[in-house]
Amino acid sequence: MANLKIGLAGNPNVGKTTLFNNLTGLNQHVGNWPGKTVAQAKGHYKYNGNEVEVIDLPGNYALSAHSIEEIVSRDFIVDEDSDVIVNIIDAANIERNLYLTVQMMELGANLVVALNMNKYAQDKGYTIDANKLSELLGVPVVEIEANRDIGKEELLKTIEHAAANPVNTTERLVYNNELKEHIAELQAVIEEDKNLLDVPSSWIAIKLLENDEIIEEKIEGSSKRNNIVRETER
User: Do 67 and 74 meet the contact criterion of CB atoms below 8 Å apart?
Assistant: First the structure.
């Protein structure tokens, strides 16, 4: 029997906790994240002989560490050695939801996208091509209805396959040559200070280029601060 750990991530009100309840049933408990006042819901289910631990991450629109919820989610993706992150997306608000998806890809998360609320999206006149979305993102996309069992078996099967065949999603992101070169050069400077590498250097580089205030504060105490700033502003 293999033991797997998965996290459920998504924007608020996308059906994430509904999916958590659907997957785990009564096999769950709620506490706090260690050292934090943020609630942590854990549960588990069994599938094909695997015991799967499920963690319902706080609902976030981004992972820039502007709130304790964002920090908790980011740290889980980076540090908790999870097998799969299931990213629940509201099919009727796909553009807004994909911002978080891309941020998790920047962190290298092994993603499965669960496209939820498809019936609602169709009623609003939206048609989402899940296969095309999967092709563009380079990760599996499964259509589900979290409040029912529609797509559940396919999702469980896809999670199991993704856990056995992890993908470095950072490599799926495509930038133009000039930006790609700038990110690589900035990464090289960042990596000279090992104290900064609690998150991927590529993610720090991208956030610096976005003028993210939290990440700018992070490098203030770095011994390589001047070199990093110089390369960022180049």
Answer: no
Last residue of a domain, one of 171, 193, 215: 171
Between 9 and 213, residue with greater pLDDT: 9
| CATH code for the domain in which residue 45 is found | 3.40.50.300
Chain position carrying tokens 């490599």: 171
Give one word for 81, left, alpha or beta, with left for phi > 0 and alpha for psi -120 to 50: left
Note down the domain range covering 124.
3-171
Residues 54 and 134 in one domain: yes
Residues 117 and 148 in one domain: yes
pTM: 0.89
For the stretch 113-142, pLDDT in tens is: 999 999 999 999 999 999 999 999 999 999
Same domain, 144 and 183: no
Task: Determine the pLDDT at residue 33.
Answer: 73
CA distances from 109 to 73, 143, 161 (A): 11, 20, 15
Instruction: Tell me if 44 sits within 8 A of 31, measured CB to CB.
Output: no
Interval 151-195: pLDDT, tens: 999 999 999 999 999 998 988 888 899 999 999 999 999 999 999
